[in-house]
Amino acid sequence: MKRLFTLLLFGTTILLLPAQNYRVQHLGSDVNTTGSETGAVLMDDTVVLYSSTRSSSDTKGRLYLVDFSPVLSQFMQAVRSADGTFTDVRQNRWGLNIKGKNCSNVAHDALHDILYFSVQEMGEGSLPQIYYSRRTNGRWSKPLQMGGDVNLKGYASTHPAVGYMPDGKTILYFCSDRPGGLGGLDIWYAVILSDGKPGRSTNLGAPVNTDSNEVTPFYSIHEGLLYFSSNRPGGQGGYDVYSSEGARNTWQLPRNLGKELNSPYNDLFFNLFPCHCKCVADSGETVEACGFLTSNRRGSLYEADSHCCNDLFVWSRFRKPVPQPRPAQQHPAETLLDYLPLSLYFHNDEPDPATLDTVTRLNYSACWKHYIQMRDEYKGAQSNPADKRKWDSVQWAVDFFFDHEVTGSYNRLLHFLDLLNNELREGRHIVLTLDGYASPLHESQYNVNLSKRRISSIRNLMKEWNDEALLPYINNGSLRIEEAAHGAPDTDAVAPSDPLRNPKSAKSVYSIEAALDRRVDIIDIKIE
């Protein structure tokens, strides 16, 4: 049974999928430069269209960044060969580039052969607007600005994406910071009418949009999934890629694609390309899907700042070969591994607050029982936004956290211990690895000691569980527990002025963001 790991964030909920089998590969220096390359799409099975920053004085299609010349984003193209390499890199000559303006973020409506993209004037204060171009008899029309209210004066409209309704109508998804959203850049949509004009723009709403930024949408028609990037809390860092199942304005809880695809930096413009990539690799892995990704992760090209600029990457998702059935005793940890990593949550400074002790007499059951009684206290401490939709979302988020994370993980722990006991009775020798964490409210050493106390409470529960059923195995060494107390994760990244480090701020104690840091993770199991 594969378990969905849930991550609850302020005002929204995100499902974190089990580790996915992704590979991400840099496209190399033929396509990428020390500037920024973004938003690649594959057209006509071979042509890769993308945008690249380059000097406005450069007329050869190559990138030369110079201090005295404005930098423009213009469309480039390359040819994707049958072996997956990219050649014939040059400036696009279809008439999409507009002199003296930034052109980027392209999306292809393959059904009607229309390109949608962003155009932005040079100069401070200018905002991107969405344009389109239609191909007729092999020629692309002059780019025109979208009508309707897709472009709204005084607000950004960017990152177009194309989807289709069951009746064949086209939906244009895009991002905007206009009024009526949930905060920052949100994803909006407009149905393209029969005359080619867009209908009224509508916000996707929660749970896709949050008070953080949601950008670079891509709708996969075959999967029925909307992929997008967001800088909401709880990801790997920067912008992470998420997916949500649904259509139009009815969406399921977003799911983080996980650390196999996302990085601690910005991961954007995730898409799938219609290639014949379903094949079996030499290792026996079946490649299920592939596409492009834009990122400034490690390995990107740069001139001065190692993470200044985006590059193009290609990703593939694969399925490992199914192992041949073997006797159950040869895989004693198989069912246990289905429960890992298992995160167990604590209230602020619990157990045994205001002490530097590294052990506690309490077991985790006592901590959990105290924690679940604080649901209403957490609800009352949340800030009350004027928008009722946001307020309902915040309250629902607290309920989801207590039901699915605090209580759900506790119940999974009890089942895990039952399976663990069965394996030990069969004569296995098992090593568990526990990692302890704290929120950044206190100083470093205090948080390390607090993390140790939290691990100690898990140890106590294992010793006392089911009338001390596991205690003999702990005493004789059949069950060993290795631990690491990490304190607050990424403390250096949290500024002293951040509310998470301010004792007078309710956010430092009652926000879901802080609550997610206060935990012990059972991260690994080994059979010896």
What attributes characterize this protein structure?
single chain, about 525 residues, alpha+beta, 5-stranded antiparallel β-sheet, 8 helices, 28 strands
Report on the architecture of this protein.
The chain is α+β, with helices and mostly antiparallel strands and 528 residues long. 19% of the residues lie in helices and 34% in strands. Strands 1, 2, 17, 18, 19, 20 and 21 form a 7-stranded mixed β-sheet that branches. A hairpin with a 4-residue loop joins strand 17 and strand 18. Helix 2 (364-372) runs antiparallel to helix 4. The two termini are 24 Å apart. Mean pLDDT is 83; it is low at 1-19, 55-69 and 326-334.
Tell me the structural class. Answer: alpha+beta
> What separation lies between the terminal Cα atoms?
24 Å
Q: Taking all residues together, what is the mean pLDDT?
A: 83
Beta-strand content: 25-35%
Principal-axis shape = elongated
- Rg is 26 Å
Number of strands: 28
Largest sheet: 7 strands, mixed
Spans of at least 5 consecutive residues whose pLDDT stays below 50 are 1-19, 55-69, 326-334
Indicate the percent of residues in helices. 10-25%
Number of helices: 8
